[in-house]
Amino acid sequence: MKRMVLCLMAMMGVLTLSAQSVYDFTVKDDAGKKVSLSEYKGKVLLIVNTATRCGFTPQYTELEALYEKYAGMGFEILDFPCNQFGEQAPGTIEEIHQFCTANFNIRFPQFDKIDVNGKGEHPLYTYLKSQRGFGGFDLNERLGKLLDDMFRKDNPDYDKTPDIKWNFTKFLVSRDGRVVKRYEPTDKISDIEADIQMELNPVLSNIMARRSVRKYLDKPVEHEKLEIIVRAGINAPSGMNRQPWIVRVVEDQKLIADVTEVYKKANPDMVKRDKDFKNMFRNAPTLICVCTPAAGGGELDAGLLGENMMLAAQSMELGTCCLGGPVRFILSDEKAKFFLDRLDIPSDYKLNYIIGVGYPDEQPDAKPRDASKVKYIK
């Protein structure tokens, strides 16, 4: 019997590791019926572990307000009561649901009670935690400092594990099933709402999803898609409509391979350090080369052009990376001059930057952004 249990646990672990999105999981609703989360494809989700006798229980009011405000725009809250934290979710799921509807008039889906940590944790939460670990409590907030002190007294390294720390931890899931962010119970609902708005708006969600990709599938980008990407680029704002840039799209794999050979001979140690090295353009199969006037100027317009192209590529499930290093090498090594000749760049222009484009073979996490650098002058 023990061996069977271990085998089942191992199988669940394999299933969780092989999962590509939250849509791969099945849960039970408040009536005990199995529900595939694939039913929520195309919606923005906020997944929450809740409790009815917790100091954070009044958050039900704020959650219901979010639901009422955004449900019509494709937003859902998935509520999973959990009794693991101070046994603050006692009773049956029927009793919990009755309490929540009577006291907070919730209308969003509520599911059967589950464990979110430990041997009996639901595979959904194993997956969620693997995608977004614990990022720490906000120590500038009183409750955040209180919780940090409480947990650290019990375990000085409590923050090193991805475990759910307390009730009302939340995970934001994008329309395509990616786990975008994790929020601790002390995080402000107003901040969560701003992120929800980002995900609900297709333009904003595309901006927030874009990452620099450095690993690509061995798959060419369709020429038709490249034409759309470039069209999006040249329609970027341009001062006085001067359009002071020129664009060259390199689909020629031999040209990319030939200039890479020059790079490899000049930088053997750098190539050896990258076990996945295919070419000098971060392995991208296609290049978009942007040039600006050699005498200077046009950099701002070229930047707007590039951002438009990268966001257009993101919207078509393509990855991009803006590259400066290869440009510096090509401009400085006489043996790479043939690459510039093939681009047919006018003599009064210079190569400014290159965008690598391809089908991504990775999903990098977002790097932190410093919001303190922004000030509003009113």
Q: Layout of helices and strands, plus pairs?
A:
Blueprint: H1 2-18, E1 26-28, E2 34-36, E3 44-50, H2 59-70, E4 75-81, H3 93-104, H4 123-131, H5 142-154, E5 170-173, E6 179-183, H6 189-200, H7 202-209, H8 223-234, E7 246-250, H9 253-266, H10 268-273, E8 286-293, H11 299-315, E9 319-323, H12 325-332, H13 337-343, E10 349-358
Parallel strand pairs: 3-4
Antiparallel strand pairs: 1-2, 3-5, 5-6, 7-8, 8-10, 9-10
Helix pairs in contact: 1-4, 6-7, 8-11
Describe this structure in words.
This protein is α+β, with helices and mostly antiparallel strands. It has two domains: 2-209, Glutaredoxin (3-Layer(aba) Sandwich); 223-358, NADH Oxidase (3-Layer(aba) Sandwich), CATH 3.40.109.10. It has 13 helices and ten strands. The protein has a four-stranded mixed β-sheet, covered by helices on one side. Strand 3 (44-50), helix 2 (59-70) and strand 4 (75-81) form a beta-alpha-beta unit. Helix 6 (189-200) packs across helix 7 and helix 8 crosses helix 11 (299-315). The protein starts with a helix and ends in a 20-residue tail after the last strand. The model is unreliable at 4-8 (pLDDT under 50).
